[in-house]
Automatic annotation (TrEMBL):
Low complexity: compositionally biased ranges: 1055-1068
Annotated gene: LOC114769778
Name by which UniProt lists this protein: Cohesin subunit SA
Family the entry assigns: Belongs to the SCC3 family.
Residues forming coiled coils: 281-311
Organism: Denticeps clupeoides (denticle herring)
Occurrences of domain SCD (ranges): 317-402
């Protein structure tokens, strides 16, 4: 039978050739027998559309529910266009719908675009018109697809009857709008988004309504599939995009029809078997015959649906899933995922999964995203896992690697897919695969972290034993189901060596593990109760980690927003989220009001644990204390806090206590009085102790022992920590601190820690006094008193700058900068003119001391830094901390310059270090330069010039008057000048004032492009005849600069001339690649350097003054030589997509490229049809057309070791859609070959980057 079919097909093709029908029209050859084998396909040959009836009648059988097909002899002649006027949508002329004069939509496209009518009624109207005259109805449908592509033309009845498919498409291509490349599927706006939905819905409803009769008439579906196949093969992107979407939705609808047929076949088979198994007397033979006939008809219908699906899959999908346009590829992958989920028996096998697996390596994130979502729909159904086992084994590594995708959306979906794989089979993922996902819980991108948290929850924290869970459900605390899970969470946190951010871990698990993270009762019992016999005891590290995690969960529940670094800011909570936040806050408050004092009592000697626990009251609902009559627990908390203050001198612990007291003392709560009394008692005791210890220390002087020093230091640390958040001015701490500082300055023996704390405490005291003055109505005496205090403290700080101890000097410097900023002229702005007596302006001596401090302590080499650290060996962390401290010092001084507190010329000594210390302070110096330029451009320019002068003078002092102008030091100055020149911007007139003031004019070659056209005459005003006649070496920079202006102007004119003369020669290069951006400037600079060399040769200066390579904004390269380096892109293979020509990441290995070339040569031999079609298109429409005859798929989709031959095979070699047989059908499903050839797996890792932190 197969041999007969092959002979018939060959004969039909011969007949087509004898008729002289060129390629491009539709011809359908069908087996006239009732049997249908695996090899039955729908093939496209060379008959025109008008000849479909003749060919379709070769199958002379009639099927139930379908209109009878008339033979060629009895066929009625076609009606004239006038006789075929249908009742569907108004009047038509030559088969083209016209407006009815009332503005109503008259075409399918307009009806679908407006979407005012239900698709069901629209399709029913079309079916009614098809029954009356199928030619005109099909013409309306053809024009619908043409217009949906954005084409302004329309197919007329004469074209439909007399022209070939290729000619029709070529004609429609010429009708495109030449002014715009947009078409309905790409147009923005909600209207066109709705159109896309209506377009897809129309196709689905059309097939659903026609599934019982019309789709089997061998006319409508053949015509539509032929049209869509031709359009999908077009060079016009709009045609290809629209027809591919239509074809894929058409295929989806056919898959649904095939699924219904399969279900009906199974039901019919069951009825037949049931009837046949009855006894002979009860068996109804007529019913058996009807069931047999129905089964036969369903079988024939299914065979026809298979042929249609084969035609779409092999004619459109296998070409367009590797289209050059990412959106078209995404459509194909999205729909094949729908087919595999909808009809898994037919499509969920290696033959189709391989396309999704290959496309996981697509270059565009949009396509990779569609692949992952398609696979998620499959892995969600656990019944499909056996069919996905081979695919999982082959592509698991690629899916896991995509969790690090550079596109965050793709990474999120990849993690979710890995989670689904884990749920289906825990053995599918190795420990290494899981670890690759674990560390993503610390990602800075919250969606990635949350997805990884879901994976971690499924892997480690999900309970798999329902019986054990039910037994433990009634238990609470440490014996609850969460007890072991909390221990596991702590262990995971400690073993996370890459990150130590508990807040990030909690936030990642918050959405998936809230029940675990909010089980504070379990956590506190694990911390408070002793371990039971046989139970593992929590170690010190585990307890610290658990407390840190617990505090992070409390903060997350109370604040209801991610930690700093995740998210763009606090979003507005919904009503449900707000209610959850309030409930959680009440729950944690009620629990920790009683538990926190016990925890503080147990861990009161451990500073790390206590500092974390003291943060808990900051998240309380403090009204619960009074509403719940829990004042006794408040007293217990205050008692424990007092013990903590008395036992600890660690800064973190004391500051945590200070913040907690400050929150508990809020005036809005009724407990304020009780807390204020306790705080005052504590401060009184600390103040008295501090006062007595200070008196003892001052009296003993140099004879003070360690106990005296410790008493002063411990009391001062506690008071300083509290003074930060509380107003302690009534205890007059400033006087005692000032006396300590004066004694240290006079005697020079004050311990550095006491000096640092005294400076800080005095600073807080001054700020609290300023707050009182600004908030109230101060008298003149108050202002004078505060000014006297500030002046005396500034003098002390200035004297401390010469202290031998570095920490004291740094503290004094920071406080000086802060106070000068606070008490500057900006203090009187905003209607506060009365505070003018408090304004302090630093004198020149203080400014010089501050600048010298920066030069001595910030701009130092590593060796100098090690010496200043008294020889202590620093590890990497200490080095980073020291650098951070120096950056803070520089930033504090830079603020004084920016806000005009310190004179701007002082910045010259900072700007000159821009290049040398670029890695450490480049961002700070650059920002300072930017802000000062906004303040005063001229003064800023002069400051830059001054910095260059300083560098040049230092170089002269080091090397003497005879400089080696080719040395690296001179080149460094020129490079710095080039960097400065880039900061001037394009405002040439404003920047011209300062440039001639430069003393080292040799570097001004970098500046000449900034000056205006009359820059030479401007320079002449500054030059005298004596200056022009000097010939000593020191005057060479001025002469060279003057000559550069002269030759630069000439070179400008020469460059224009040369550019005009060479415009023709460079036309080819300008089409293929961008010419050098600075084409004229290198020539001008070349002439400028030539004049420099000539002038220097005339003067006979020692040494060749060769300009270093990188001393200007462009490389000094011959433009002709640069042009020679432009790659000749004419040699690129014809047909490549222009979007990918310049992307080096798309280049494959040499061996892979050779195989691609060989495969492409095979492809081009089968593309004559395409080229013949595209030859007559007008050049004006080229903006809508691709350059290649067969759009090339991106090479990331190709194998690096061998081509995927079945991706380029003809229809006869591609697989045939073979629906699974029913129980009554012969067994056609054979074992498929392994389509996951290792050569087909793409190994492009360019998509994957580092962890998105």
């Amino acid at each position: 039978m197969h041999e007969i079919n092959r002979i018939r097909t060959s004969c039909c093709r011969s007949v087509c050739i004898d008729r002289g029908v060129p390629p491009g029209s539709l011809c359908v050859h069908r087996d006239s027998s009732n049997e249908s084998g695996p090899g039955d396909t729908v093939s496209y040959s060379t008959l025109s559309v008008s000849e479909l009836d003749d060919v379709g009648d070769t199958k002379g059988k009639r099927k139930r529910g379908r209109p009878a097909r008339s033979t060629a002899a009895s066929k009625k002649p076609r009606k004239s266009p006038v006789e075929k006027l249908g009742p569907l949508r108004g009047k038509k002329t030559n088969g083209v719908a016209q407006q009815n004069g009332e503005g109503d939509p008259t075409t399918l496209f307009e009806v679908v675009r407006l979407g005012k009518s239900a698709m069901q009624s629209v399709v029913d109207d079309w079916i009614e018109s098809y029954k009356q005259d199928r030619d005109l109805a099909l013409l309306d449908l053809i024009n619908f697809f043409i217009q949906c592509s954005g084409c302004k033309g329309a197919v007329r009845i004469e074209m439909f009857r007399n022209m070939q498919n290729a000619e029709i498409i070529r004609k429609m291509t010429e009708e495109f709008d030449e002014d715009s490349g947009d078409y309905p599927l790409t147009m923005p706006g909600p209207q066109w988004k709705k159109f896309r939905y209506n377009f897809c819905e129309f196709i689905g409803v059309l097939i659903r309504q026609c599934q019982y009769s019309i789709i089997y008439d061998e006319y409508m579906m053949d015509t539509v599939i032929s049209l869509l196949t031709g359009l999908s093969d077009s060079q016009v992107r709009a045609f290809r995009h629209t027809s591919t979407l239509a074809a894929m939705k058409l295929m989806t609808a056919l898959v649904n029809v095939a699924l219904n047929l399969s279900i009906n076949q199974d039901n019919t088979q069951r009825q037949y078997d049931s009837e046949r198994n009855k006894m002979a007397g009860k068996r109804a033979n007529e019913k058996l015959e009807l069931l047999l006939e129905k089964r036969k008809e369903l079988q024939e219908n299914q065979d026809e649906i298979e042929n249609m699906m084969n035609s779409i899959f092999k004619g459109i999908f296998v070409h367009r899933y590797r289209d050059a346009i990412a959106e078209i590829r995404a459509i194909c992958i999205e729909e094949i995922g729908v087919w595999m989920k909808m009809y898994s028996d037919a499509f969920l096998n290696d033959s189709y999964l391989k396309y999704v697996g290959w496309t996981l390596h697509d270059r565009q994130g949009e396509v990779r995203l569609k692949c992952l979502k398609a696979l998620q729909n499959l892995y969600t159904n656990r019944e499909l896992f056996p069919k996905l086992e081979l695919f999982t084994n082959r592509f698991k590594d690629r899916i896991v690697s995509m969790t690090l995708d550079k596109e965050y959306d793709v990474a999120v979906e990849a993690i979710r897919l890995v989670t689904l794989i884990l749920q289906g089979s825990e053995d599918a993922l190795s420990n290494e695969d899981c670890e690759n996902v674990y560390h993503l819980v610390y990602s800075a991108h919250r969606p990635v972290a949350v997805a990884a948290g879901e994976f971690l929850h499924r892997k480690l924290f999900s309970r798999h034993d329902p019986q054990a869970e039910e037994a433990l459900a009634k238990r609470r605390g440490r014996n609850s189901p969460n007890g072991n899970l909390v221990r596991m969470l702590v262990l995971f946190f400690l073993e996370s060596e890459l990150h130590e951010h508990a807040a990030y871990l909690v936030d990642s698990l918050w959405d998936s593990s809230q029940d675990l993270l909010k089980d504070w009762e379990c956590m506190t019992e694990l911390l408070l109760e002793e371990a039971l016999q046989g139970e593992e005891v929590l170690g010190d590290r585990h307890e610290s980690a658990l407390i840190e995690l617990m505090v992070c969960t409390i903060r997350q529940a109370a604040e209801a927003h991610p930690p700093v670094g995740r998210g763009t800011g606090k979003r507005v909570l919904t009503a449900k989220e707000r209610k959850t936040q309030i409930d959680d806050k009440n729950k944690l408050t009620e629990h920790f009001i009683m538990a926190l004092p016990m925890l503080l009592s147990k861990y009161q000697t451990d500073s790390e644990k206590v500092s974390n626990l003291l943060q808990v009251p900051q998240f309380f609902d403090l009204d619960v204390y009074s509403a719940g009559r829990m004042e006794k627990h408040l007293d217990s908390l205050l008692k424990q806090m007092r013990f903590v203050v008395e036992k600890h001198t660690d800064t973190d612990v004391l500051e945590a206590c200070s913040r907690t007291y400050s929150i508990l003392c809020s005036e809005e709560y009724t407990i304020m009085n009780r807390v204020d009394i306790a705080r005052s008692q504590l401060i009184d005791e600390l103040s008295d102790r501090f006062g007595h210890s200070v008196e003892d220390l001052l009296q003993e002087g140099d004879e003070a022992d360690d106990d005296d020093i410790y008493n002063v230091l411990s009391s001062l640390k506690r008071l300083t920590a509290f003074h930060n958040a509380h107003d302690l001015t009534k205890w007059d701490l400033f006087g005692s601190c000032y006396r300590l500082l004066k004694m240290g300055i006079e005697q020079g023996s004050m311990p550095e820690q006491i000096a640092v704390q005294a400076l800080q405490c005095s600073h807080y005291s001054i700020l609290w006094q300023l707050v009182k003055v600004t908030e109230g109505s101060p008298s003149k005496d108050d202002l004078i008193a505060l000014r006297r205090v500030v002046k005396s403290f500034l003098a002390v700080c200035q004297q401390c700058l010469s202290n031998v101890n570095t920490p004291v000097k740094e503290q004094a410097f920071m406080l000086l900068c802060d106070l000068l900023m606070i008490f500057s002229h900006q203090l009187t702005t905003g209607g506060r003119e009365g505070l003018q007596p408090l304004v302090f302006n630093p004198d020149g001596a203080l400014q010089n001391e501050l600048l010298n401090f920066i030069l001595d302590h910030v701009f130092i080499d590593q060796d100098d830094e090690n010496q200043s650290m008294e020889g202590d060996e620093e590890d990497e962390a200490n080095k980073i901390e020291a650098l951070h401290k120096r950056r803070n010092l520089l930033a504090a001084f830079s603020k004084l310059i920016i806000y005009d507190i310190v004179d701007m010329p002082a910045a010259a000594d900072i700007f000159k270090h821009y290049m040398k210390y670029y890695n450490d302070y480049g961002d700070i110096i650059k920002e300072t330069l930017s802000k000062t330029r906004q303040t005063d451009k001229i003064l800023c320019a002069k400051t830059l010039i001054l910095s260059l002068q300083k560098l040049f003078n230092e170089l002269v002092q080091d090397q003497g008057p005879n400089l080696d102008r080719t040395s690296s030091h001179v080149s460094g100055i020129k490079e710095l000048a080039r960097r400065f020149a880039l900061t001037f911007g394009l405002d040439q007139i404003k920047t011209r004032e300062a440039v001639p003031c430069l003393g080292i004019l040799g570097t001004l070659k970098e500046y000449w492009s900034l000056l205006h056209a009359h820059r030479h005459s401007y320079l002449e005003k500054f030059m005298t005849e004596q200056m022009m006649e000097r010939r000593e070496d020191v005057w060479l920079p001025l002469i060279a600069y003057r000559n550069s202006l002269l030759t630069g102007g000439d070179d400008d004119r020469m460059s224009v001339t040369s550019a005009n003369s060479s415009s023709k020669a460079s036309s080819v290069r300008s089409k293929k690649g961008r010419p050098p951006l600075h084409k004229k400037r290198p020539e001008a600079e070349e002439g400028m350097e030539g004049s420099w060399m000539m002038r220097n040769d005339t003067l006979q200066t020692p040494g060749a003054l060769q300009t270093p390579q990188l001393t200007s904004t462009v490389l000094r390269e011959n433009p002709r030589q640069a042009a020679d380096h432009v790659p000749d892109q004419d040699s690129s293979e014809a047909g490549s997509e222009p979007d990918y020509i310049h992307n080096q990441q798309m280049q494959m290995s040499w061996l892979g490229q050779q195989k691609v070339d060989e495969s492409n040569r095979k492809d081009r031999s089968g593309m004559n049809y395409m080229k013949a079609r595209g030859g007559g298109v007008r050049p004006a429409v080229r903006g809508l057309m691709e350059d290649d005859a067969e759009p090339i798929f991106e090479d990331v989709m190709m194998s690096s070791r061998g081509q995927l031959e079945d991706m380029n095979e003809e229809f006869e070699d591609t697989m045939v859609i073979d629906l699974p047989p029913s129980r009554n059908r012969r067994e056609r499903a054979e074992l498929r070959p392994d389509f996951f050839d290792s050569a087909a797996i793409i190994e492009d890792e360019s998509i994957v980057q580092g962890v998105p932190f």
